[in-house]
Queue: 4 jobs
Job 1
Amino acid sequence: MTGKGGTGKTTVAASLALALAAEGRRVLLVEVEERQGIAQLFETEALPYEERRIASASGGGEVNALAIDAELAMLDYLEMFYKLGRAGRALRKLGAIDFATTVAPGIRDVLLTGKVCEAVRRKDKAGWPVYDAVVLDAPPTGRITRFLNVNDEVAGLARMGPIHNQAQAVMRVLKSPQTAIHLVTLLEEMPVQETMDGVAELRAAGLPVGAVIVNMVRPVLLGDADLARAAEDSGAVAAGKRRTAVAKALSQAGLGGARRGGVAERLVDPLLAQAHEHAQRVVLEREQRAAIAGLGLPVRELELLGDGVDLGGLYRLADSLRKQAVPGGTQAAGGDAAQGPYDGEDLYEAAYPDGAGPDTADEAAEAPEAPEAPEAPEAAQEGAAGPAADGDL
Ligand SMILES: Nc1ncnc2c1ncn2[C@@H]1O[C@H](COP(=O)(O)OP(=O)(O)O)[C@@H](O)[C@H]1O
Ligand SMILES: [Mg+2]
């Protein structure tokens, strides 16, 4: 999930995670900007660098959350490739990792995208994907293409070996139909322009664009004829007639006499001014909607919640997404076609072709209890009775 800052990227990512978790599915919601936005939204304490369950959905569904810490991800990475367990910790004491992750933002992005893709590809002991979907509260539109494409650069720099393989495996996930990059916008000129630029950049980079999610949509309060009348800058005569008509209507509604200087008359001008503003806004919003439609992408709309977004509001937005068909939640339903070309190309396998993986005791402990399954995971996934395995990002 990307979008211009402040448009509701974190809120919409969390709503999407909740929507995707319905009907007993398991979703991971990830944040990479070190702001603890997810914890705030779900009204829980700050998230450690560890996956933990933060919300439930219908049918036993659950949302787990992870706030990726770039420095700890760096240690993971060093351990994975160089088994620098203790040496890595020594480096950290020296501040070397801090240095590497802040001075070279590219390194940071490699670590963050690598961790996200690892979660996407992770399988349990029986070979099932651990998560049905992984939702990333990604960097804003202005940075998203570079962020997602950073592994292409790395793969070019390291021509072969485990780092090259890892970078390529990440790019394969990010460019596959398993991934969908959704863009949050408001019906305002700047965010819509940013959305259009972002979509063009993503498309040029060959990255899979998903849906545009228009957030904080306000209702239209007038019918078309009234809107047209309220929008026009009327001449003095028409304005006079209109003021009289409105004063009469207010008076009929019991708001005092319609005569000059009465309560009703004093309400008229502010009300007409508000109607004018409203009508102008609706006209502008229609222009923005048309621009968005021109992108040829699926569009979803989320209402502006009057009281802000609390936990209840989050579930309401999730519900709304479900009613509109959750983006990324339907196309792979009932099958695992989206994962077809990537079967057997697990990130860790790519890094460790000989099967000598890193010490993943922590992850093993986190994985759910899975029965020993002698048959190949691919065969198990053909069955209709298995868990939904869209694995959408
Ligand atoms: N649909 C909505 N209705 C009302 N308030 C919203 C909605 N979506 C987001 N907000 C509010 O807008 C602010 C910015 O949202 P946030 O998700 O933090 O944006 P971002 O991650 O893009 O910076 C927050 O205060 C949030 O509660
Ligand atoms: Mg945010």
Job 2
Amino acid sequence: MLNIENLVLTVSDPETGAETEILHGNSFALAQGEALGLVGESGSGKSMTLKCILGIEPSGARVDGRIELDGTDLLASSGEQLRRIRANDLALIAQNPHGALNPVLPVSRFLVEGMSDARTMSRADAEAKAAELLHQVGITDTERVLRSYPHQLSGGMLQRVVIAGAISGSPKLLLADEPTTALDVTTQAEVVAILDEMRREHGLSMIFVTHDLDLAAAVCDRLAVMKDGEILEIGTPEQIRDHPETEYTRALMAARPMLYPAGHPAQEEGAHAAGAAGRPGSGDANDEEAGA
Ligand SMILES: Nc1ncnc2c1ncn2[C@@H]1O[C@H](COP(=O)(O)OP(=O)(O)O)[C@@H](O)[C@H]1O
Ligand SMILES: [Mg+2]
């Protein structure tokens, strides 16, 4: 459904005009319903790759290559056509959910405004649909959450609201950029589980960006390992684990011993670096309170 060929992103310094190549000709494809993990350390170009797909690269930047979504070349599309495709087919879930919500409007307004059929619905129907969306992402006290303003809800609760809003637009492709990095570890696991469930239930494709190879392996069908603006290798989590092609991938793995049984060479090399990272079980979405 998504086919990216030879993607090059070049930014230029507004003062000197000096050009820097940020992405160096990356190619990958995504099948319908597939989840691809884009994994790499900070600064490796993961977010910029998503920005190129969304058409929100830095001003003055140049994007070369091909980004084809269900047969439409997004780079060749006009502004209006690209705007329509972005609005209908793509949904971004970013690290900080506050950025997605207007701080002076209640959650109900955010959800209702995101509904493609809001104009043809009565207010009561729209609110009922908003409550149903919240139910789908594990929120049970929907009345309270709908009436709340963003600052009154925890990060985990807000990220659920953002996911609900993304689903309501019936996108084809979810772009999740470190969607759980800003959350505490228990909430992280819950939000990942919800994202995964929504993706499967709605048959969505997803690009899941993270620096956490272990997390990506748990969520994704395939992983693309990025370093310095380049995709080094792409494979299933098993392929990446059993036959890493680069030292860099081995180092990323070594930092996360959870994925690898005791005695695995990758673990012994770097077990000290990782600490006791665990994947907690899921809890009740409604336990957490505001102010987290
Ligand atoms: N607005 C910008 N203008 C120019 N370069 C940028 C901008 N934002 C990020 N970069 C550079 O692009 C590279 C990739 O960044 P990014 O995609 O944000 O990395 P990641 O998401 O993997 O941490 C980095 O070297 C970063 O310094
Ligand atoms: Mg990033």
Job 3
Amino acid sequence: MGGYRIYITILVIWMQMTMVQGNCPIAKCTCLDGQPPSNERIIDCREKGLLSVPAINATDEIFQELTLSNAPESNCRGSSPQAKCNRILHISSNTFAGLKVRKIDFSQNYLGSVANDSFSGLETYLTELILEGDDTNLVPFYSLTTLTKLKSLTLERFTLNNNGIEAFHKNLQIWKH
Ligand SMILES: *[C@@H]1O[C@H](CO)[C@@H](O)[C@H](O)[C@H]1NC(C)=O
Ligand SMILES: *[C@@H]1O[C@H](CO)[C@@H](O)[C@H](O)[C@H]1NC(C)=O
């Protein structure tokens, strides 16, 4: 009897481990092992020649980071970028639905437009966000208003107008809570 119970326990633990360390939710990218203490995995989509965020398979696993960046030394913002460079121009509505992730990195991309509800579903998870624009687009503040857990926001190569500044003030009110 005792032996049987131990067997059941081991089976349950094994099943939980395989569920946690499931497939990578983005087929085109690689899931890297995380670092202690959390051991949450990283979805690595660096320099995959992406023109948009690839389809994401919904999962209950919580990821430390999704990185869609290019390395600065790859010169992906130059006039003739290599094929490996990610050049993501647009983030559409509900792009990250079904994903639980703490940090998203769009460094060295060319975001021209970010839909208002791009980040819906990430409200209770996202603490860090890095966006890089195309030098002409306005700061996409409306997309950020629901991200109340955000602790660090990096915005590069966007412009501001009065409406943007007004939206920023509203966001500051939200984030202060
Ligand atoms: C994602 O889901 C589709 C069908 O829903 C499945 O065919 C595919 O294998 C899944 N990809 C991964 C990486 O789990
Ligand atoms: C985004 O939200 C703002 C404020 O509600 C609104 O003025 C704007 O038209 C929205 N943009 C789109 C593309 O729906």
Job 4
Amino acid sequence: MLNYPQVALDFMNRDHAEFIDLRGKLLDLLSAPSDTAAINTLLDQLLEHTRHHFAEEERLMQETLFFAYPMHKGEHDNVLAEMSARIGDWKQTHDNETLREWLERAVGNWFVNHVSTMDFVTAGFIAMKSKNAGCQTYQESC
Ligand SMILES: [Fe+2]
């Protein structure tokens, strides 16, 4: 079970829970001999979910002139490149154990670290900007 904090923006918390759910489903499928097509579909969903989530964070960071945007965006780009490469490798080799190990350790560690640091600070900044602007666009509950 991964232990990560809730951040100040609802959509980010929802997306983080969805990411963990997708990762968990993949880990379950990969730990037993299983359906390659189902793994394939979930990997595509994970990549699409992550792309969409990062793009949404980046849009808000730009709108609010977030001071650490280049650093946060740089990490997103690295993660997407790594994820695409890992998925591409799996599609060629169907090496479930290598993929499972990566998802379990590297992705798990990265996720907890990223949410606890960059996302936590970013969400707090955007929520504060939203409050100052009368809670218009960035936050559902204010
Ligand atoms: Fe992020």
